[in-house]
């Protein structure tokens, strides 16, 4: 009896273990996973069902910064006080600081040529928990500094740091800089503690102007000193609105309750410079990974607002009067996009109460801010406005690692930007053609890599294609496979589950598979782990059966369009799962006498259309 009972208990225990393993291991876990990522799942910081693990942690920062900006010399001098929280189970022996603007330091390597070099970031001594660390004791990367701690930072404890620095800004190089003598967008401007996470420890990538950023979740209290007459726009909420003249505050108040674009400053507005910026501008921001600000003493300013379920969002556009023809609709486009994305597709409320578009650079996003170029084309300019604003969700709301996984933010943002433009009735054929000329570079050959390739291992020739086009093709194929309704719910659930927590590619893959309860191994394996490109062809038509070949290897949707002898057309849609069993797919025709058969790839452009049609 005891032996029998023991056997039953052993069997039940085995079933529990098997059940738990199956619950935690979707079929997609068969795909290759690097060891440094696998260890996170083994430690329980991330789950195989695509959710954050019970032991997931994030190290966070509280910044208090005082900065003085001299527009005439373009020099910034600052002092910051940081409270750094080590929420990890590890003892930290050194802290890494990103000093991104060292990329312009004389002699430093960078991904693109520039005409303006500087002395980089002049970092003075630091005080860490009362101990002074002098500059000569820092270990240098190209755009980071390693500071060894005299007192180690124990798990789940904090340290306090004081840092002084100075840096000089260039004219616009790309992601920051001076637009003109008295207008500038100030970004990457302060020594910022790097990310220490459960996957890769310290994020020690050097900034070369190519790859973008990954930053800790932080709180900011910022004081910005400028001469009188300058207005400031920034991440966060202004704490001393009395720095504006009464007229400006009245107009902001009107815009804050209006769904129409309101003028805050136009070319007819006359203001007394002595009534603007009587004291330093003070801003506060919670739960953001970065902080940027901009200033000008002559730019125009439009604004509107939108009321969402839990907040009201003030939307601003700031630009020189010469750019009025290209920015006159920017505020409306931004508002329309926030409304669609928050209330319709995918239905995720805009996470912040501010957003400002400031004219200038190549098109670059920061929390609650964008530094946007003008290409003098209404559709492409709208693309830039909408795209940079949608980055609010990815990477900032999700805090994804742009440095290593650019496809997660650029690809998803590009995918939804195209959706928003379509909903706002832009010419999508024109947009696709024009953007393809910009983004396709490098992925029409050997530079077309598996999507799992870290962004740091792409080059200047193919990172746009790998970051924007290929992932957008993947998302379009995945939405079609799942169906728009399921896809929309899945994206919304993923964002709500992972907000602020830094999901990475495997988290997304596992979450989608677990949420939809579908075996998508064939999809992930093809797109993420193998070389491939979108290219279908009609191999042959024999005895009423058409054989289609997937020459490029990627599982993509398509339509079979059959024209009979009287010119009548029949369309037969097929999803990406047509390619589960291999590269050949046979379709039995119902049309008795087809005169023409064509494979159309409308969601994902076919690389070679010459072999997509058959004529009788």
Explained architecture:
- The protein has about 625 residues and is of the alpha+beta class.
- Among the domains are: about 200 residues, tricorn interacting facor f3 domain (Immunoglobulin-like); about 120 residues, 2-Layer Sandwich (Zincin-like); about 80 residues, Immunoglobulin-like, CATH 2.60.40.
- The protein contains 13 helices and 31 strands.
- The protein has an 8-stranded mixed beta sheet, with no helix packed on it. A 6-stranded mixed beta sheet has the order 17-20-21-22-24-23. Strands 6-7-3-11 form a 4-stranded antiparallel beta sheet, with no helix packed on it.
- A hairpin with a 3-residue loop joins strand 6 and strand 7.
- Helix 6 packs across helix 8, helix 8 packs across helix 10 and helix 11 crosses helix 12.
- It is globular, with a radius of gyration of 27 Å.
């Amino acid at each position: 009896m005891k032996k029998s009972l023991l056997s039953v208990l052993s069997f039940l225990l085995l079933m529990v273990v098997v059940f738990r393993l199956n619950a935690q291991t979707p079929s997609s876990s068969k795909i290759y996973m690097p060891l440094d990522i696998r260890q996170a799942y083994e430690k329980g910081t991330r789950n195989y069902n695509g959710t954050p693990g019970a032991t997931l942690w994030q190290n966070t920062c509280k910044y208090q910064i005082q900065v003085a900006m001299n527009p005439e010399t373009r020099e910034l001098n600052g002092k910051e006080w940081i409270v750094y929280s080590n929420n990890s189970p590890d003892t930290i022996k050194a802290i890494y600081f990103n000093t991104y603007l060292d990329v312009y330091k004389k002699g430093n390597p960078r991904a693109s040529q520039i005409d303006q070099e500087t002395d980089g970031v002049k970092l003075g001594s630091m005080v860490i928990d009362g101990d002074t660390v002098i500059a000569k004791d820092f270990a240098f990367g190209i755009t980071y500094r390693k500071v060894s701690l005299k007192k180690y930072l124990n798990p789940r404890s904090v340290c306090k740091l004081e840092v002084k620095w100075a840096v000089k800004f260039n004219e616009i190089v790309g992601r920051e800089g001076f637009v003109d003598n008295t207008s500038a967008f100030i970004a990457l401007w302060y020594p910022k503690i790097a990310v220490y996470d459960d996957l890769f420890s310290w994020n020690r990538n050097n900034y070369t102007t190519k790859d973008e950023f990954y930053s800790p979740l932080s709180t900011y209290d910022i004081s910005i000193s400028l001469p009188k007459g300058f207005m400031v726009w920034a991440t966060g909420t202004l704490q001393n609105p009395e720095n504006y003249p009464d007229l400006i505050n009245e107009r902001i108040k009107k815009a804050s309750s209006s769904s129409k674009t309101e003028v805050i400053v136009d070319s007819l507005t006359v203001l007394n410079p002595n009534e603007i910026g009587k004291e330093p501008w003070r801003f506060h921001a919670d739960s953001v990974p970065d902080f940027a600000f901009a200033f000008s003493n002559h730019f125009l300013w439009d604004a509107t607002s939108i009321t969402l379920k839990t907040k009201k969002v003030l939307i601003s556009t700031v630009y020189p009067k010469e750019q009025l023809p290209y920015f006159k609709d920017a505020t409306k486009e931004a508002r329309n996009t926030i409304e669609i994305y928050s209330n319709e597709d995918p239905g995720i409320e805009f996470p912040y109460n501010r957003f400002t578009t400031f004219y200038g650079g190549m098109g670059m996003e920061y929390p609650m801010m964008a530094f946007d170029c003008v290409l003098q084309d209404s559709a492409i300019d709208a693309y830039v406005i909408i795209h940079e604003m949608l980055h609010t969700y990815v990477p900032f709301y999700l805090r994804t690692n742009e440095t290593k996984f650019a496809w997660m933010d650029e690809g998803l943002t590009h995918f939804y930007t195209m959706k928003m433009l379509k909903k706002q009735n832009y010419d999508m054929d024109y947009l696709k053609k024009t953007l393809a000329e910009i983004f396709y570079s490098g992925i029409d050959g050997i530079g077309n890599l598996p999507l799992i390739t870290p962004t740091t291992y792409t080059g200047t020739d193919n990172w746009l294609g790998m970051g924007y086009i290929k992932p957008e093709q993947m998302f379009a194929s995945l939405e079609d496979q799942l169906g728009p309704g399921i896809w929309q719910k899945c994206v919304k659930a993923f964002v709500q589950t992972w907000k602020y927590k830094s999901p990475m590619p495997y988290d997304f893959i596992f979450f989608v598979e677990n949420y939809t309860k579908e075996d998508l191994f064939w999809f992930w394996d093809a797109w993420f782990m193998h070389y491939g490109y979108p290219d279908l062809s009609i191999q042959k038509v024999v005895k009423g059966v058409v054989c289609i070949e997937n020459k490029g290897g990627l599982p993509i949707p398509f339509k079979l369009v059959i024209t009979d002898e009287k010119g009548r057309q029949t369309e037969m849609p097929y999803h990406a799962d047509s390619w589960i069993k291999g590269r050949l797919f046979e379709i039995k025709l119902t049309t008795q006498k087809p005169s023409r058969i064509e494979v159309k790839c409308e969601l994902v452009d076919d690389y070679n259309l010459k072999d997509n049609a058959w004529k009788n």
